[in-house]
């Protein structure tokens, strides 16, 4: 088996892992970081520190701990597979979801010292976000028969992987529960953290199911696609895990109760719908060399923002073209769909939608009373507004 590495770490053999992990038994510190430095147990994270660099360094430790997990009698070959699989799928993205936990936590803790231990725990949940994302992308690529992800071939498309990648996706999801139990079971908010992550995982799976059912029904009758159905899919498939989960996790780390932040949740869910509409637009119109992915929503018969808008604007002839060509794999059919999109000026319609969504979100954010919550929401909106990938 060849051993490829991804940004953030390299494959470590089981013997080396056992030696490294003798240095710590699950407590956040003292522990030797991947940089070789030993953080002080009660040290304070300095202001102006390179938080992203610190976050990235935690990856190696978590990956190594999971590979060395003794809950199952894995062979050396199996451990090498797990290490390679994690390295291929978890790091290498933009890390926006993981860093959202860090950024949100630090904004909520403004005016208070953040210890090394506290920052490490935020990093653990941040990497749980990246594990969640990796699981979602890996399984989604299989279901969509995608070819590329993050500028390279999808994991399941590698000849030695194939549909065994399904089990790898399940394993990534199990890793999250393992990490949360290891690092938070003694915390007073452990139950809240566990229930949050379990609940969002269920919502995301339901969202994926709604997407698959909608795609199947739309394949028989394209006009079954509607804006209401689209928003329902996005709310559960994308919004809760990509936008609400990182902020809710940060809130729980500070000891807050999520029941007091329903307004924040609603804004983040709305932001997720805006984000997914962007994703759908980029899938069709963006340069794959910029996004790192070849868009396949048209070929996959997806209930996307673009097709929903097109159906609402098209005349009888254009609807007939869409009915005959949408969901077809051949380049001629895809070109006809894109030509119809252009004739309907979906680029212009999307630009108007984006301006309107942005203004509505700004108004909702300004209505929030908590300054820290406002800053969190503003930071999210700034990251996604008019994004190109």
User: How would you write the strand order of the largest sheet?
Assistant: 1-2
Helix content range:
55-70%
Q: Which overall shape is indicated by the principal axes computed on the Cα atoms?
A: globular
The largest sheet, given as strand count, sense and whether it forms a barrel, is:
2 strands, antiparallel
Strand proportion: under 5%
Q: What is the assigned CATH homologous superfamily of the largest domain?
A: Farnesyl Diphosphate Synthase
CATH class of the largest domain: Mainly Alpha
Whole-number total of structural domains: 2
Which stretches are low in confidence, meaning pLDDT under 50 for 5 or more residues running?
Answer: 1-42
Mean pLDDT over all positions: 87
**If you consult CATH, what is the topology of the largest domain?**
Farnesyl Diphosphate Synthase
Named CATH architecture of the largest domain: Orthogonal Bundle
DSSP, total strands:
2
Order of helices and strands: HHHHHEEHHHHHHHHHH
Terminal-residue CA separation = 33 Å
**Class by helix and strand content?**
mainly alpha
């Amino acid at each position: 088996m060849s051993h490829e590495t991804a940004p953030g770490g390299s494959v470590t053999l089981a013997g080396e892992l056992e030696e490294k992990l003798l240095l710590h038994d699950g407590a956040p510190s003292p522990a030797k970081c991947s940089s070789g430095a030993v953080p002080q147990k009660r040290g304070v994270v300095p202001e102006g520190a390179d938080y992203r660099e610190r976050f990235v360094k935690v990856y190696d430790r978590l990956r190594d701990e999971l590979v060395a997990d003794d809950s199952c009698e894995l062979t050396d070959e199996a451990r090498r597979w797990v290490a390679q699989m994690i390295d291929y799928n978890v790091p290498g993205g933009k890390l926006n979801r993981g860093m959202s936990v860090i950024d949100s936590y630090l904004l909520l803790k403004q005016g208070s010292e953040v210890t090394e231990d506290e920052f490490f725990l935020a990093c653990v949940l941040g990497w749980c976000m990246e594990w969640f994302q990796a699981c979602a992308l890996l399984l989604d690529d299989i279901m969509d028969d995608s070819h590329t992800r993050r500028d390279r071939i999808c994991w399941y498309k590698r000849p030695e992987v194939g549909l065994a990648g399904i089990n790898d996706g399940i394993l990534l999801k199990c890793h999250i529960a393992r990490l949360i139990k290891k690092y938070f079971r003694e915390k007073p908010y452990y139950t809240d953290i566990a229930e949050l992550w379990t609940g969002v995982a269920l919502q995301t799976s339901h969202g994926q199911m709604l997407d698959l059912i909608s795609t199947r029904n739309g394949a028989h009758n394209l006009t079954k696609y509607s804006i209401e159905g689209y928003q329902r899919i996005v709310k559960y498939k994308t919004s809760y895990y990509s936008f609400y989960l990182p902020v809710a996790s940060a809130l729980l780390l500070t000891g807050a109760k999520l029941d007091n932040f329903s307004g924040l949740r609603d804004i983040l869910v709305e932001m997720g719908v805006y984000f997914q509409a962007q994703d759908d637009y980029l899938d069709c119109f963006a340069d794959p060399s910029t996004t790192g992915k070849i868009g396949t929503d048209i070929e996959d018969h997806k209930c996307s923002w673009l097709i929903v808008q097109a159906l609402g604007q098209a005349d009888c002839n254009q609807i007939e073209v869409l009915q005959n060509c949408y969901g077809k794999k051949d380049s001629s059919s895809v070109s006809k769909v894109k030509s119809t999109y252009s004739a309907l000026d979906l680029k212009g319609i999307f630009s108007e939608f984006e301006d309107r969504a942005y203004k509505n979100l700004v108004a909702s954010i300004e209505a929030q009373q908590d300054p820290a919550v406002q800053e969190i929401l503003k930071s999210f909106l700034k990251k996604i507004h008019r994004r190109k990938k």
